[in-house]
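Blinded run. Sample ID left blank on purpose so nobody reads anything into the name before looking at the predicted structure. Input follows.
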Amino acid sequence: MSKDLITLDHISKSFDGQLILDDLSLSIYENSFVTLLGPSGCGKTTTLRIIGGFETPDKGHVIFDGKDITSLSPNKRQLNTVFQKYALFTHMTVAENIAFGLKIKNKSDSYIKDKIKYALKLVNLEGYENRSPESLSGGQQQRIAIARAIVNEPKVLLLDEPLGALDLKMRQDMQYELKRLKEELGITFIYVTHDQEEALTMSDHIVVMNQGYIQQEGSPEKIYNEPENAFVADFIGDSNIIRATMIRDELVEILGSKFACVDKGFGENKPVDVVIRPEDVELVSPENGTLKGVVTGLTFKGVHYEMDVEVNGRELLVHSTRLSPVGTNVGINVDPYNIQIMNVPESEDEEAISETI
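Blinded prediction complete.
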């Protein structure tokens, strides 16, 4: 069983009077790939910088492998950081860039040579020792930045949106490369991104953040299939979030029709919010549908069609590999397991989110 390697204990941080992190607590397991995910300004990069020692929290403690490192400088911590701007030294060769940290630690020439060879093989850039960083592509520069970090044998690798400057195809390729590196190195990766696909593709554990709080954390499957609130449901992929009524356990009324579901404990005849993913909406003939609607919009997305279906004055987003042209009358069914029930938001912020969806 994995143990806690890093614990953030009631961390708070403000800049210029603005609260960025508000009493945040988080445990990160050894050898995991954890992604801090959220929109700009949610506090994810500040959290990473506090772990790395580049920022000191106003309140709270950073515990690393059982020791309080809150006041420890970055170079004294058993971790390395790869930034979005790779910060490679352009006046040095690739080998000199990789060796930089090792020379500061006064490692022997033979040790450094072996480490450079090992790191370049690991990132699939053997033979690039004497190249200039400026002669490399963005993806290759990113790999060199990772190689420079891993030769120091950190227990943790911090990655702050390292794929942000790459084009889509290279970004997708590097997602799988990072996942491979994580498995080969057997160390803990903590990754910051606002890209939901990156988080879902690479992570063992996702921490969804907004406005300085953790909204939800869990496996990619749990975050996607069982969002705990409207923000998470909307931020992780596309969602239909609909105000509904919980008739009783395992029965909910959606847009005027009753649907079987699997949720319990919400009470009887209580207002709830329902999350239905677009790919979980089944279009059938009108007479076979629990709901009836008409297709009002259609976009071809390559792997599927994206359709807008108007149902009782409400538009639902539907993803399907089967085409239903605009104007088609359709029926709608949803499997009980694909209906996610949530409590109606209590705060004004959550209410504003759900009302705009």
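Unblinding after everyone has recorded impressions. The chain has two domains: 4-225, 239-355.
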